[in-house]
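Quick question about two entries, pasted in order.
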Amino acid sequence: MSANRGRLAGGRGVRIPAALAAFLLAALSGCAGSGAHPADTTASLRNVPPAADVATIALWRMDESIGTLAQDSGPSNLLGVAGLDTRTDYGRYGRGRVFTQSIDSFVEVPYNPVMDAPASFTIEAWVRIDAYGNYEDTPIAARWTAQNADHSWIFSIAGYQLRPPVVPTASPGDHALLVGSAAVGTLYFAFQPADAGAPRAYFSTRQLDVNRWTHVAASYDGRVVRIFVDGKLDAQYASLGRIRSSPAPLEIGNTIDPHVLSTFSGSLRASNATDPTPYYAFSGMIDEVRLSNVPRDSFESARRP
């Protein structure tokens, strides 16, 4: 991706790579609203999808049936663009997005100042894992690239941490200090403190199941990090401070250097990557990704019959 920065019409102080800004503007010119959110035919009536309420920063429902746009049902319309190696299929509610082990499997949402919620924060999603990653982890959502200045937070699933000759290529180690010796399949939330210091990482006690829809969430109120699995508190940790603000975009289902992305042939792809190995690509489905500016402890969509 070109290092030149552009602006998306209507945004003030919003840093967007020029190629992605042009792509989004072109897409918006022909894009209609996604309409009503389909009902979940497999869930109990007591299950409802997460709402775009007053505390919502953004909510990506992943309901698009065609194309590569990921609409935001939140107040700021933070439109995302999906890589070519993703698609949509029947999800937890309506449709969800399928992610594959490819460097072009991601949803990229350009940076917007509303993403910075350093004092109070919640990230949540529904995930259905096909396989754990071979390397350190497979992010669900993150504002965390290989550039130190872009470290804010990451919400991910620990992988096998394999090395050659078991795998053909050694990991670049971008997340090695975060994952440490975590058990494979455990959920983790890590963030870079606003004050000087090393990143902090916190883990679930439970391994997430493969081939099963699971609601996952992490919250932070400046004092305590809490990790939730299926709406229940799984682990909590004392951690004073604030999350560092950063110019990083939001990436769903992967972490890649946004500077390698381009819109060659009219699609957003990592065509400038020197190493195409999908080290951190999520394998499975992700649905109903919601960012909030409060530390939630109740998740309406996670309630099961």
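Here is the second entry:
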Amino acid sequence: MALPRLSHKWTTLGVVATSVFTATLDASAIAVALPNLAVEFGASFDTLQWVVLGYLLVITGMLLPIGRAADALGRRRIFLGGLAVFVVGSLLAGLSVGIWMLIGFRVFQALGGAATQAIGAALVIDAFPGHERGRAMGLVLAAVSAGLVAGPIAGGLLTATIGWRWIFFINVPVGIMSLALGWRTLPVSLTSGPRKFDFAGSILLLVGLVLLLFGLNRVQVTGISSPSASAPLCIGIVLMLLFVWWQQRTPTPIVTLEMFRVREFSAATLASFITFLGLSSLVLLLPFFLQRGIGLTAFEGGLVMATIPLLMGIAGPVAGAVADRLGTRPIASAGLGLTVAGLGLMATLPDSTGPIDIVLRLIVVGIGLGLFNSANASSLMGAAAQQHRGQASAVMALARNTGQSVGQALWGTLWVVIATSILGVTTIVDQPLDAAFDAFRMTWTVAAMVAGIALIASEARGRTKPLCGHGNSISPLPHN
């Protein structure tokens, strides 16, 4: 009788990991093709940004509503439906004949991507016993890392050989196989019963998040004083406050706010948000530093940047297994300590630096993030009651995406302010940046300090016990 159980949990992991890998690869691969899209469709840079930004906005805004729908209607049903939408959206995106048609189909594709991101972790946590939870989450995060590593490489190869459309077409056969396997093997998951869906809360959350992220995106282009940035920011903040107020009063909330009363859950969520806020300083600035600062080609720069997701993929599964034995807090906090150290080391790069110096520093960041992500995800999901795990999985993805989105505006703005006030460099896009190393170093110094706050949040979760020997525990309470 043990063999079917092993088959069930590993096939569940396989379906989720494949779906996450495909969505991650697609999101990172399309960025490489943007110059080709500009030529083929005659699109401006501002318009091209929406190929990526539209996808990100929809996923971020839909995570919590989809997570709540999954808890009410069944995680298997919503996950497979989202996967089907992603496959259809990929096919339509590949067939696009205009830039706005592509953007529209990317938005449709994002609805499916939001479902897989919001629910995948919950399906894996349900499938594995408690003492294997960390290892399982480490393997899922390894799939994310593999997608981040393979995306730019695959995107460049496909675009240069058979065309950018195959970045989307390749999702179709992989998605169909995942759908077929998931339909046969994913179990019917626990639901919270027939409830009315909170459409008012969904609209407040979606519109509020979209306006917030759009406003933050405009800050780095027009400045905070511009109405195109300040107006959506202010309206978005008001709508998000209304969302929290409404969630406390409606009988069918999108997110059960009581989950945040569990210290382990709230601390893990905050640590995740702040960590990815700090990490986004590398995601945004490092490509410009490598190409315009030290003169690497785009391909060479991509290989250097692959260091972080590669090390995350290697360290993640190991960290998850160790966290199962030692507890999640020491592993998550140790990982954040390395992340802070790596960002601090980036702030010490000399003017005459080369790729080897940078790779050695990024190795520290990559190992640290691999340790943190696996242990923190296991802690966050384990702190949620089983009937709330769809929401918890969505909250985890929302914290990650929001941290990255806010960071894109924060670090871009900070770099521009430092470079302008100290060095007289006015743009990060079209000027050589070898004379602006101080701006990079100062920005990464602040990012290291921000990541240090995440370390404090991680420690605030309290002492966590190892899960080995505890069976398939689903207790929502922290072990303090």
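Reply: The chain has three domains: 1-196, 198-251, 259-480. The radius of gyration is 21 Å. Hope that helps.
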